[in-house]
Amino acid sequence: AQKAFYGAAPIDLPGVRINTLQPGEKATLTKPEHPNANFEAFVNAALRKVASAIGVTYEQLTMDWSQVNYSSARAALLEIWRGFTAKKGGFASQFMAPIYRAWLEEVFDKGLIELPAGAVPFELNPAAWCHADWIGPGRGWIDPLREAQAASERLAGNLTTLQQEAAEQGRDWKMDAQQRARERAFYERLGLDPDPGKPEARSQASAAPPAEPGDEAEEEVNGRTSARRHPAGIPRIARRKTA
User: In this structure, what is the dihedral angle of CA atoms 77, 78, 83, 86, given to the nearest 10 degrees?
Assistant: First the structure.
């Protein structure tokens, strides 16, 4: 009877198949009930797996910091920073270092650098001349006050150096020191207090004139200290004098 009824009362729509109901039949639609109460937990679990696979935290992937406190954020940052440091080192050694060596070799070939007397030529020890510390981007601070105090404690206990602390924030400690010297000299020329928050620093300040920017002597090269450095930390380049 059902087949005969459907055959006698067809409904034809182009490209559509429709079932014709018999008298008394009812079409019941499904109720997916999405999103349900477990949808957010499911998505968060999936995102945590994705973050773990790519080496970042869930918070960095989703930018959701609602469930984070200082301790958990600090622990997560320290954990992933090791991976970032390894990637930075690989990028520096495999990409930046070869470019730097090629550039420095050309500089030496053109005679643009005057070597100190007795210095080893570039071609005899290129690895020593090309040695460089690639700083890269800074790690950043979660709580600047706490982490600055911790850095001061590490420096006071000889557990770290200014170079290491500055490099972790993507800065060159020598350039920072030179900038501070320039700012101090500028304040003193204007008759201003260079240390308004540190009265004890004024009483202990040296009367020696500040060094000119960029006149810092390079570390010993083969026992000599006559080489000069550019304020950016690279060897000062000067054209070789010709007869």
Answer: 130
Q: What is the pLDDT of residues 166-202, one digit of tens each?
A: 998 999 999 999 999 999 999 999 999 888 777 565 5
| d(C-alpha 112, C-alpha 104), whole Å | 10
**Which residues, other chains included, contact 119 with Cβ-Cβ below 8 Å and sequence gap of 6+?**
221, 222, 224, 227
* 68 pLDDT tier (thresholds 50, 70, 90): confident
Question: How many whole angstroms separate alpha carbon 147 and alpha carbon 141?
Answer: 7
DSSP calls for 51-113: HHHHTS-HHHHH---TT--HHHHHHHHHHHHHHHHHHHHHHIIIIIHHHHHHHHHHHHHTT-S
Check: CB of residue 100 under 8 Å from CB of residue 222.
Answer: no
Long-range contacts of 44-52 (CB under 8 A, 24+ apart): none
Q: Is the pLDDT of residue 103 over 70?
A: yes
Report the amino acid identity of residue 55: G
Of 4-18, 43-57, 204-218, least confident by mean pLDDT is 204-218
If we measure between CA atoms, which residue out of 75, 71, 49, 74 comes closest to residue 62? 49
